[in-house]
Design brief:
The chain is of the alpha/beta class. It has 7 helices and 8 strands, in the order βαβββαββαβααααβ.
Amino acid sequence: MAALKLIVGLGNPGPGYADTRHNVGAAWVREMARRYSIPLSLDTKFKGEIGRGLVAGVDIRFLLPSTFMNNSGEAVGSVSRFYKIDPSEILIAYDEVAFESGTAKLKHGGGSNGHNGVKSVVAGLGNKDGFFRLRIGVGHPGSKDQLIPYLTKQIPQQSEREQIAQSVSFAESIVVDVVQGQWQRAMTALHAPEPNAVKTEPNPGET
């Protein structure tokens, strides 16, 4: 696999959404940008905050769409087309209600599992879904009727926020393998019985 060229964190814009479950993907990308000293700045041409720098020797861009979640593909598609980035060179980080908080999984391709942000990204990439995903578990409220406020209005308790952050606090060796496109090696490392390990799903057909 090719090295990554673009890492995207999905979420809704504005301080009112920053700490909600729906914004965990964006929060992770902000933390990664801070970790690797990559400044992010708003670029209206790309409809998002974007930054560029080196991660493990890889020239990579970080993107936070400034549109609302359901239109995330406008920013991703714009950056992808302008810089000629193939979907297989993109990692999208987002919230996943199918997993409990404290669980995170990597996946390549497949469906959106009902996630409107991912649906928009697929559309923005010309209906191509062959990008990588970091699915960050946030749990489910138990009722479909409660899902929207659960994701977009409720602020998780500190203990849950710490669980979520821990699930994506990757060791440097794992970050290296991910950005360099060494996915099989990353999967092997992520399956190791370590406190910070996360599970992965190598099956591209899973939804």
